[in-house]
Amino acid sequence: MKKNASLIITSLLALSLISLIVLKIEINRTNDEIFEKEYIGNFEDTITKTETEKEITYEIIDDKLTYSWTFNKDEKLKQALKDNMEIDMDLKLSILPNIQNQKLNNMVDNKDLLVIKFNHHGSLPTKAKISLDVSNKYQNGETLYLYYLNEEKDQIEYIDSGIKVKNGKVEFTIEHCSDYFLTGSIVQDAVNNPKNINLIIIVMVIVIIVLIASTLFQNKK
Predict the structure, then answer these.
(1) DSSP track, 61-78
(2) Of 59, 58, 120, 93, which is closest to residue 181 (Cα–Cα)?
(3) pLDDT tens, position by position, 38-55
């Protein structure tokens, strides 16, 4: 009787141990599938590569954010591709609601600001044209300015102007990745503002002064 009881207990323990091993294997297999689906699979599925004789374009759809990189096929890019640029360079970017640096944040009107933060920081192998869906922020036909947030020097630097919103998208060209922002307003304290922008500011000030003077003159009548 005791032998039968011991045999039953031993069998139950063995079955329990086998069940635990099978469960652990199943959990590990499931975790591997989740990892491949959510990290490897999704990342590969969100990148579409298009290549022509002159350009290579990578279109990324990431968390409902759509954008693309376009590189000209010059000698610098060819060398970068040989050096595994596709593996080493992170093509991810994200949108922030405001500038993280408080000092620089105080220099800008945040009403129409769109901060673009690149995961990759540093120089690019060649110039890259970025196409970004901004339909949630700007209207078609709006004209924007592009500025670079230079946190090392605590300054905002002018990059480009006249960036038109077309079909909900904007396009601009950069030579290195860091933090940038788009805005419909001129940042007066920005470094390297071209003369024509400064001229616009001066003209706007003159127009405001003339309007104020005209209003005061009318009131006196």
Answers:
(1) EETTEEEEEEEE--HHHH
(2) 93
(3) 333 344 457 888 888 888
